[in-house]
Amino acid sequence: MNELYFHLYPNAFASMETTFMKESGGKLRNDSMPSNGYGSMTLKGMKTENGLSLMNRLEYVQPDDGNIKDKTLMKVRLPRPVKGGESITLSMQYEVQLPKIFARMGTAGNFVMAGQWFPKISVYEPANTRGRSTEGWNLHQYHGNSEFYADFGIYSVRIHVPKNYTVAATGFPVQPAQNKNGEKVYQFYADDVHDFAWSASPDFIVAEEPFSSAEVPGVRIKLYLDPAHKDLKERYFYAAKAALKYFSRWYGTYPYSTLSIVVPPEAGNGAGGMEYPTLVTAFGAKDESPGYDLERTVIHEIGHQYFYGMLASNEFEEAWLDEGFTSYAEDKLMEQEYGVIPSLPVQSTLISTPAPLTQDAWKYTLPNQYALNVYYRGKMVLKTIEQSVGKSTMNKIMARYTGKYRFGHPTTSDFQKIVEQATGKSWKSYFDQYVYGEQMADFAVDQITVQKKKSGSNPLFESAITISKNGGNYDKIPILFTFKDGHKLKKIWDGSGKSAVFKLQYTSPLAWAMVDPSYNIVLDNKHMNNYLKADMDKDVLFRWNESITKLIETLLGSLSW
Amino acid sequence: MRTYIANGWKSVKDQFYVIIILFLYQLLWGYFLYRLVESAVVPLLMRYPDPPPNQLSQALYYIEAQMGLSENSTVHAYLWILLGIGVFRMLLTPFIQAGILYGLQQEYKGLRGLFFFQGMRRYGKSIFIFHIVEWILLAAPAYWLLPRLYHVLISGLQSQLLFLNGVPYVVAWLLYGYIVHQLLLYMQFGKISGSGMVSSLWIGICNSLPIIGISICLE
Ligand SMILES: [Zn+2]
């Protein structure tokens, strides 16, 4: 190996010209960059063990977009190659100017969220990692829509802060904080993690509770609360314990000895709802009695200890493996613990620009396209598998996937294989359409015609209903027919072909037909066309048309002849 | 006052062919609009789930309808057609108005003939300029009112009673529009009769109260 690559993520905030700022417009989720909130990382020195400086061997690279103003990825040419089995040790000095918080990291007043604060080495992938045929670096800049990808390692970190500050960090403190020369010095250690984050504030209210269950040998849950949420400790602890317990039961034991939850102040909301190994952030504390979003965020971020933390997928290239899976787990636990059931039909309706789930994160460029695909569409793809194979098989699939790829870097096809093994059949068509492709399901009642076959005292009507498939495939499509006399009839369409015609003979004409009347096809994002009336009262239709025409004519007539 | 109105009716009789033209003109627009509305509204009504088969049905219908306004290409096509009609009719209006005003003017002088089309040719362009001024004056309050109305609209989506907060703004705008329209109409009279726009404007302002009364009665 002749070169190393490092991510200098803080440089994303160095100017308005960086790739991150150009793509995001200085806005992430609902938080905008405060004025003059720039940040950066300056490398002051880089040496090998024998003291050879590598400073003249550095070069910023932009493999994704060639934007030379972007300095978030750095290449270091090594003085001599590192061969297989050999190792190299570098020492670096660098200065970080943290940005003002709007996107995950930075400062807000005296609150500090130090994520991505050190030059983080890129992932060198051996052949067969995530399906690649030859070994090599996985290199990406920091983008407006993308999180991170890193390899597992060991961290030993000493943090100096002013005396009145409290520090929360990944891993565990190897000794209590020491006061030295008017500073407080923390020493943390973490292994089997792929990132190290810390947070500090003089205002944190700290609470700690031990937790163990049949599935979890022993974890210290540490809560670092903004004072605005000092009375909500119990809610945070309850959610954290439920998450540790059930995620450990479903997806394997939580293997670390600590879990820290940081609750940022309101101004630091941009740092909220973020996952780091053994450290998560809740959303910013502003409301004194927030709704279930508090629990939802805590549970979601703890879910990431699996889908991100232990199953360290590539968030640049397959963000759904983190967000879609975590959202799926989050919904499941929210329903079990709090009885909160998401309205999946409403959520799927919002997905107006579906895109492949295995697409690079920054290529979701339309408004909300990243979140709607990666979070919502991702979890709906899983939910649909669950509906198809049943809950218990789905639980087995998730347990096998999380077990097999624990401390690994799984890819989408790894998951597909697990599904195929567990169900004994090919899922290629499903994955091709909904995961690698951009399909949504869309079944519609297209047309209804009613013919009178017999009149008199025993009338007979034939109603012909055309159902069509405008999106991806689906196995069994339920259809509900309702006749004018109130009689109801249910049928199942096997979904083969582009459309089907149902001919029903009955003593009363059809009133309306509806595909998927209970909205169980979660990937169907167009519901208006699920329902169609056979006809409507002519007078009613005329009144509608007439009043709308009059309204338009009045508007036009007020401005023109 | 009475004699003026009587004279008005007499000129109406003389220019009957203009009335027929305008009647046909509006009839055609009305028919076309009705067909357009029908082709858009009937499919929507046929898909409105009433009574709702599922408790979510109507909510989903409204959400999708709202999203359709910004995303659906068919909806966009209809909006473009409506906009096109609006623009076309607004461009035609000054010429129709020029024809009518000129006809009335010639009539008043005691002349007879097909003044409508003559007026269109002779005064269409200058009346067009009046209309541009009128449109600008009518649109100007939008700069202050639209942000406020937008707020009202957004809050009204949650609680329909809040729509009432928008009423004063709309009423004020309509009133303002009416006054602007009437005053400019006087100036157009002045222009066509050659008696001067300022003096006509002054007459218009002096007579405004009785005129408003007549207009309301005739409505
Ligand atoms: Zn997440």
UniProtKB/TrEMBL annotation, chain B:
<keyword id="KW-0812">Transmembrane</keyword>
<feature type="transmembrane region" description="Helical">
    <location>
        <begin position="198"/>
        <end position="216"/>
    </location>
</feature>
<feature type="transmembrane region" description="Helical">
    <location>
        <begin position="125"/>
        <end position="146"/>
    </location>
</feature>
<feature type="transmembrane region" description="Helical">
    <location>
        <begin position="77"/>
        <end position="104"/>
    </location>
</feature>
<keyword id="KW-0472">Membrane</keyword>
<keyword id="KW-1133">Transmembrane helix</keyword>
<protein>
    <submittedName>
        <fullName>Uncharacterized protein</fullName>
    </submittedName>
</protein>
<feature type="transmembrane region" description="Helical">
    <location>
        <begin position="166"/>
        <end position="186"/>
    </location>
</feature>
<feature type="transmembrane region" description="Helical">
    <location>
        <begin position="16"/>
        <end position="37"/>
    </location>
</feature>
